């Protein structure tokens, strides 16, 4: 009976489309084209959820995603790194699957990524990661639906497919009627375009609010604790295994990415930020940009972070602290012992122009 109602056939790869924020017509058209095409794919089960970053822990979309087992493909308007670690934060975990459809990364930047310090290993956290792959695909890479379909077919050819009924995994909440909506992407999209209030309400997903909070990339995080020292708003905490985590995400100040600028490993992501490196893009090298900004009299990343923090402190009725609190020791030493102009010249010499 469940199989008949929910259309969940055995041995199909689950593909989730995460909608864009807002109602951009070009983005909606791509989402609809992909949903319609994927419904015709024999090896794929497609569903539609709101924007991943805006899902709360108790949202039915989050509960739906948590119920899924086996390999999972998630298409979103986020950088793949942001996509993966937002899901991880919500308990939708797995190993990062290899995606071939992506923006090209410069070879030098790719080598720099390999030379980064090893991440902090938390045995307790590792136990919570199931033996499956999550493939994060960025919908900003191409406007052609065929590019995504080809990549999904490639993934489906060797992915671990599901062999269970979705509703077997959900016993109490959310209710079956709520879950069923996520499995009818075209009905959802049609309802969003329709002017009929009754029809829209029948197919509409549970609403979300725009959110702003940091997402930790545990594949890069070395657990240095510089973020918890720098942030004065109680956003960060430490779990029982001694690992940093975002504990009070709603205490984060909207639009403030200061802690991301402080992180030495670029492991703190703000998916809604306009700067690619802060929003989760791979291969973002900040060093040369910081030196160039100093050359023309602009603040470096750390000074900018301190200013951003001060703005939020004053808005909260607290005193600004400037560079006196939470400044990494490594930065103080660096400023005392390095010649910034020499560093700039060295960086320019190293470029292959």
Overview of this structure, please?
- The protein is of the alpha/beta class.
- It folds into two domains: 2-94 and 129-203, 3-Layer(aba) Sandwich (Rossmann fold); 215-350, no CATH class.
- Helices cover 41% and strands 10% of the residues.
- It contains 17 helices and nine strands.
- It has helices at 2-6, 25-39, 60-67, 80-89, 107-114, 123-126, 145-156, 176-182, 185-193, 197-203, 226-230, 258-262, 276-279, 287-295, 301-315, 329-337, 340-350; strands at residues 13-18, 44-49, 72-76, 95-96, 133-138, 215-216, 236-238, 244-246, 268-269.
- A five-stranded parallel beta sheet has the order 2-1-3-5-4. Strands 6-9 form a two-stranded antiparallel sheet. A two-stranded antiparallel sheet has the order 7-8.
- Strand 1, helix 2 (25-39) and strand 2 form a beta-alpha-beta unit.
- The longest helix has 15 residues, at 25-39.
- The radius of gyration is 22 Å and the shape is globular.
- The N and C termini lie far apart (65 Å).
Strand order of the largest sheet: 2-1-3-5-4
* Cα distance spanning the termini: 65 Å
**Main structural class:** alpha/beta
Query: Helicity range of the residues?
Result: 40-55%
Q: Biggest β-sheet, characterized?
A: 5 strands, parallel
Strand content range: 5-15%
CATH class of the largest domain: Alpha Beta
Q: Return the domain count.
A: 2
Approximate shape: globular
- CATH structural architecture of the largest domain: 3-Layer(aba) Sandwich
DSSP strand count: 9
Mean pLDDT equals 81
Classify the fold: give the CATH topology of the largest domain: Rossmann fold
The arrangement of helices and strands along the chain is HEHEHEHEHHEHHHHEHEEHEHHHHH
User: Which spans have pLDDT < 50 for at least 5 consecutive residues?
Assistant: 1-9, 285-296, 332-337
Evaluate the radius of gyration: 22 Å
Q: Helix count, per DSSP? A: 17
